[in-house]
Amino acid sequence: MIAFGQGVQTDEQTLDPIREWAGWLYFFIIGLTLLLVVSHESYWIDEALMGVVARQSSLSSWWQTLVEIKAGELQSPFYSLYLWIFAQSFGSSEWALRAAGLIWLVPGLTVLVTGFHRCNQRVAALAAVITSPFVWYYAGEARPYAMYLGASCVVTGAILRLMRTDLPVRKQSLWLSAFLVGIIFLCGTCMLGVIWGGCALLVAFFLIPRERLFRMCKAAPGRVTLTVVILAVLGVYFMWTLRIGARSTSPGTTDWRSVAFVFYEQLGLLGLGPARTDLRTGGIQLLRPYAGILLTASVLIGFVLINGFLQMAKGKPAGRTIRIVFVVAAFALFLFTVGVTVRWRVLGRHCAGLMPGWIALLAVGLADYWRRPGLWGKTMAIAYIALTLWSCLSIRFASRHARDDYRDAAKCANLALENNQVVWWNAAEPGAQYYNVPLRTEATGKNAALLLINPQAQTLALLSRPNVIITSKPDLYDNDGTVAEYVRHGHYRSSQRFPAFTVWQE
Fold first, then answer.
1. Are 80 and 205 found together in one domain?
2. What is 127-155 written as a DSSP string?
3. What distances in angstroms separate CA 43 from CA 152, 391, 405, 499, one per listed residue?
4. How many domains does the chain have?
5. Which residues lie closer than 8 Å to 359 by C-beta, 6 or more apart?
6. Is 14 exposed, middle or buried (0-12, 13-18, 19+ CB in 10 A)?
């Protein structure tokens, strides 16, 4: 028995350097792939707000700006602070602030990929990660979701290791620390992370052998206590933000369509269909031209996920599998219920805590398909990777998926102002602030565009006729259609169009 135990330990020690070098290889592959995602494109609404906050000259002005806007950025304390620190060294350009998230996302994804014990599953997990349209989309945004997803992946990767029976005691202590740090950053990056942090704690309780879990926690009382204290402080902080009225901007409410869109976005269909802005305003009928490719991809992704679930459940106690499914479903249902109750639309990014689970299922499913004899399994794996990679490349390079072009809209506004024209700005204020469009909220004033957010018809009737009207996303900024009616009756013509923008001139 002793000799056998020593033999196993020697094998594990022999494999460690190989796995370490493989881990670095995965890290560089993931990093180089996601660097392709980072672009110089214009900031869209929420990114512009992050840019405005990040470029504040001092810590006090950063905090004051956060408190004044009372938006979701106040409820992303770790990321907002990190981005401000990052901007002090590397600037607040579009490329810089988007690349900032990779510092968290790439290591997190690497921890998740290397958490699988079998080599074929690690390779399949790598393939699932670098061809995930959801990962591509949010790796290219200056928003907290890269850090959010990275922390979720660290937590999941730690659980995958701690549930193994052959993990040495010294590594159990290391991965317990990684799990606790991941939970802290998951909750501190975004208030919604608290929900998925709670989910992860319950999943860990069911997956990690109970005796080992209690032994590890007993051996590390300081780390566990510190984690509890930090989470308690974060809880008090989030309660304060809610009390002063801070809230993320997600117009609409949660219904069956928004729930369906969560799966549509997370499972990789986004790049294969219409632009998400068009889909939001135009409805599901816009999916019809893309029905063939979307249906094919849905069936293929469904087969891979179901196969992954069956392989994971094989040989495992049925009760444990049911408990895990119930826990994840219960937390997701809670989030959707909150969305319905407070009339706030839950989107795929809000459920980023689910993504490591999807990636795990896809990895196990793809690995099983690939190792099967014959062509059927390999064909399924290759077809999945080809379709999801197509979706990724469409998100990055297809013009229909370009984000709101505040930069070019701002150039039009500033050019009109330089020519002493009257300009109305019917779009988000942070986009104008970041791209240096002077704004006014009063009817009188010179050398500044008039900011109009969901104005009333009687308000517009009292204003001087503008030479240029710049409009964007009427469901957000012209929900009664009064600006659209003014444009129509005023016989304005569309002079330029940018993603999510129309420039109207006399």
1. yes
2. HHHHT-HHHHHHHTSSSTHHHHHHHHHHH
3. 25, 22, 7, 11
4. 2
5. 112, 125, 128, 129, 132, 153
6. exposed
Same domain, 362 and 456: no
Average pLDDT over residues 363-379: 93
Write down which residue in 372, 401, 430 finishes a domain. Answer: 401
Categorize the per-residue pLDDT at 228 as very low, low, confident or very high, splitting at 50, 70 and 90: very high
The amino acid at 359: I
CA-CA distance, 484 to 495, in Å (whole number)?
15
Residues 242 and 341 in one domain: yes
Mean pLDDT over residues 370-382, rounded? 93
**Residue 66: which of 90, 82, 50 has the closest Cα?**
50
Residue that is last in its domain, among 367, 401, 435: 401
Return the pLDDT at 16: 56
Question: How far apart, in whole angstroms, are the C-alpha atoms of residue 113 and residue 136?
Answer: 16
- Average pLDDT of every residue of the chain: 90
Distance in angstroms (rounded) separating the CA atoms of residues 437 and 33: 35
* pLDDT bracket for residue 244 (50, 70, 90): confident
Asked if 137 and 150 sit in the same domain, the reply is yes
Task: Work out the widest C-alpha separation in the chain, in whole angstroms.
Answer: 91
252 and 310 in a common domain: yes
Residue with tokens 């976005």: 265
User: Distance between CA atoms of 124 and 443, rounded to whole angstroms?
Assistant: 60
Residue 446 confidence (pLDDT): 73
Structure letter (DSSP) for residue 465: P
Helices then strands, counting H and E runs in the chain, come out as 24, 6
Determine the structural domain holding residue 80 and report its residue range.
2-401
DSSP structure string for 243-272? HTT------S---HHHHHHHHHHHTT-GGG
The mean-pLDDT minimum among 184-193, 243-252, 434-443 falls in: 243-252
Interatomic CA distance for residues 425 and 98, integer angstroms? 26
- Pick from 115, 114, 167: nearest CA to 8: 167
Give the span between the Cα atoms of 355 and 397, in whole angstroms.
23
Do the beta carbons of residue 444 and residue 495 sit within 8 Å?
A: no
In this prediction, residue 471 has a pLDDT band, given cuts at 50, 70 and 90, of: very high
Cβ neighbours of residue 314 closer than 8 Å, sequence gap 6 or more: none
The pLDDT of residue 229: 97
Residues 171-182: tens digit of each pLDDT: 899 999 999 999
pLDDT band at 17 (very low <50, low <70, confident <90, very high): low
Phi, psi of 96 (to 5 degrees): -65, -50
